[in-house]
Design brief:
alpha/beta; Rossmann fold
């Protein structure tokens, strides 16, 4: 079974989540490609997919939304999981999951997860810093690695139970 982990990540922290998921899947002897979503032009070679996107102002990154919309027919014929990353506190807002849930339903996917993200001042552009300053965030890495790894192991368990 060959799996795709495709991620839209503006500053790299969501891609790091995708890479960790791919690593856990590989521990179960699955063949996994992890790619930036804008570099995936075909999913014909894959038997399953995990698709993730950073969330900004409650929305998935446009490339991720476009990818799912473009490949929705193919995705609906394989096991698919999706995740969103981006809330910058240890308390996630369920509203940040809305795009991911909508896209998961369109693709007849199995599960969506919302993970807290990471905010580093040095990685932000001028406009982003201006917007972020209005909400008075505490910079830091809020990604729940144990939860992410447990979720990836549950995906691996499902995929290894399915005949290739």
């Amino acid at each position: 079974m060959k799996s795709l982990v495709a991620v839209a990540s503006k500053h790299g922290s969501t891609m790091e989540i995708g890479e960790r998921i791919a690593s856990i899947l590989r521990e179960s002897e699955l063949l996994v490609d992890v790619r930036p979503i804008d570099q995936v032009h075909s999913i014909a070679a894959y038997d399953s997919a995990v698709i993730g996107s950073g969330v900004y102002m409650g929305r998935w990154i446009g490339d991720a939304r476009d990818f799912v919309d473009e490949h929705v027919s193919e995705l609906s014929r394989m096991p698919v999981w999706m995740f969103s990353s981006g809330p910058i506190t240890d308390k996630v807002d369920p509203g940040d999951a809305a795009d991911g849930i909508r896209l998961l339903e369109a693709a007849h996917g199995r599960e969506h997860r919302l993970f807290a993200g990471k905010l580093e001042k040095d990685s932000l552009g001028l406009m982003e810093r201006t917007i972020v300053r209005m909400v008075h965030p505490v910079y830091g890495d809020y990604r729940p690695w144990e939860e992410i790894e447990a979720w990836a192991r549950s995906i691996a368990k499902e995929l290894t139970a399915v005949p290739a």
